[in-house]
């Protein structure tokens, strides 16, 4: 959705429950929170959800390796507090 429409999906417009962003969006948010990013891992596994059908999970597992790194489903950030 971000790539096609320029917007992100939401959980019924409840940004507090789940928020989607690009890699650069998350980096900005963490850096604004006074964190220094040490390492980033992309994580594209979807398995423990009732919101996505088993068929779509199967399709995702076939194509996930082609997803650009900046648009991964999840990112794992290793951070440390910035020293001022």
Q: How would you characterize the overall build of this protein?
A:
The protein has 84 residues and is α+β, with helices and mostly antiparallel strands. Helices cover 29% and strands 20% of the residues. It is built from 3 helices and 2 strands, in the order H-H-E-H-E. It has helices at 2-5, 23-32, 54-63; strands at 35-43, 74-81. The protein has a two-stranded antiparallel ribbon with strand order 1-2.
Short description:
By secondary structure, the protein is an alpha+beta fold.
Strand order of the biggest β-sheet: 1-2
**Count of DSSP-assigned helices:** 3
**What spatial form do the alpha-carbon principal axes imply?**
elongated
Rg, please? 15 Å
Taken in chain order, the helices and strands follow as HHEHE
Beta-strand share of residues? 15-25%
Our measurement of the CA-to-CA distance between the termini, rounded to an integer number of angstroms, reads 37 Å
Query: How many domains, as an integer?
Result: 1
Which structural category do the helix and sheet elements fall into?
alpha+beta
Number of DSSP E strands: 2
């Amino acid at each position: 959705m971000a790539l096609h429409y320029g917007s992100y999906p939401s959980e019924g417009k409840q940004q507090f429950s789940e928020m989607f962003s690009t890699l650069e969006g998350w980096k900005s948010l963490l850096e604004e929170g006074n964190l220094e990013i040490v390492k980033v891992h992309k994580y594209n596994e979807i398995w423990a959800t009732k919101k996505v059908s088993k068929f779509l999970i199967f399709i995702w597992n076939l194509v996930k390796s082609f997803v650009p790194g900046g648009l991964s489903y999840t990112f794992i950030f290793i951070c440390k507090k910035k020293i001022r």
